[in-house]
Amino acid sequence: MARYVKISCLTAPQLRVPPETGLEDTVVRMIAFWERQLEQVLPDRPDLIVLPECCDRPEKSGYTAERMKEYYRYRGNRIRDFFARVAAERNCWIAYSAVRELEDGTFRNSTQLLDRSGSVAGIYNKNHLVEGERTNGGMLYGKDAPIFETEFGRVACAICFDLNFDDLRLRYAAQKPDLILFSSAYHGGLMQQYWAYSCRAFFAGSIYTHATSSIISPVGEVIATSTNYYHYVTRTVNLDSVVIHIDYNEAHFRKIKNKYGTKVTIHDPGLLGSVLLSSETDEFTALDIIREFGLIPLDDYWERANAHRCAPGNMEP
Q1: In the Cβ-directed half-sphere of 165, how many Cα atoms lie within 13 Å?
Q2: What SUPFAM superfamilies has UniProt attached to this entry (predicted)?
Q3: Burial of 91 (0-12, 13-18, 19+ CB in 10 A)
Q4: 136, 216, 228, 264: least surrounded by Cβ within 10 Å?
């Protein structure tokens, strides 16, 4: 059954607040700043808003590590609670990325996923910090790769430097998320598309304004981006989609279209050899089509190909 979700990736530069500014004034300015940013996407009524890494950290120029910690401690959960109120009032999810202090006094670089009621539905702690976040910022590395269940699908999170590490990507690929939320200060280039295709998941990345924010399909195709003029992007995607290879499946494509017409989309991004099959109806799911026509999902096809390679007599001595 079609699972449409409207996603906004909201990019913004870090707010410049001189370090000698009072902490209360800094928090007030930060909330006002994000109120202005949200005004750009809220009229489109997104189901989900993704924010960049450390979105409520002042621009660091002039800040010592200790002054930044003072800010974090004073801020507490106030800005998270501001976003939670927005989520509840506007009936949307928000991926809020920020440094947070735990009860034991240690820090994490985290994405907190706020649901439509404003509650914290899950927390992801950045697994792969850059070294300075630990040595200068006092943060600890995260160790878990959780999947969060939402009404529109299974969601994973990654933050900035995470995108460079295969161990985290492969842990997510094994769990088969529908959507990866990426909050970052760095873009990652082709790694964004590689993660999307490797995990067979849609990818929504929110990056600071020096680079574009993007929404990417499970076949690694960039389907929407922010621009140099408008630092946000909103797009509706259909999470009821399955990646399949053309081999052994293509013979059924015309039969599927003849029977179901616009109720099924088979999208070829070109050059890849794989297509994205999506159900555009409430009558059946993409997996129902897979079963009805005996199609082979991509990961099953790779396993079959490897098994055939290793079968007795098939490999050179």
Answers
A1: 16
A2: Carbon-nitrogen hydrolase (SSF56317)
A3: exposed
A4: 228
Same domain, 190 and 123: yes
pTM over 0.85: yes
User: Within its chain, how far is the Cα of 168 from the centroid?
Assistant: 14
| DSSP 8-state symbol, 59 | P
Q: Which two tokens stand for residue 154?
A: 């299974």
Q: Tokens 């989309």 sit at which residue?
A: 265
Q: Please, how many CA atoms are within 13 Å of residue 36, restricted to the half-sphere of its CB? A: 9
Coarse DSSP helix, strand, coil percentages of the chain, rounded to the nearest 5 percent: 35, 25, 40
Tokens describing residue 82 = 């501001």
List the domain range (segments joined by +) for residue 262.
Answer: 241-310
Q: Are 55 and 34 in contact (CB under 8 A)?
A: yes
Question: pLDDT digits over 11-57, tens only?
Answer: 888 999 999 999 999 999 999 999 999 999 999 999 999 999 999 99
Domains held by the chain: number: 2
Show the DSSP H helices in 91-175 as ranges. 131-135, 166-175
In this structure, the answer to whether residues 91 and 232 fall within a common structural domain is yes
Residues in the chain, overall count: 317
How many CB atoms within 10 Å of residue 299? 15
> Mapping DSSP to helix (H, G, I), strand (E, B) and coil, where does residue 52 land?
coil
**CATH code at position 191:** 3.60.110.10
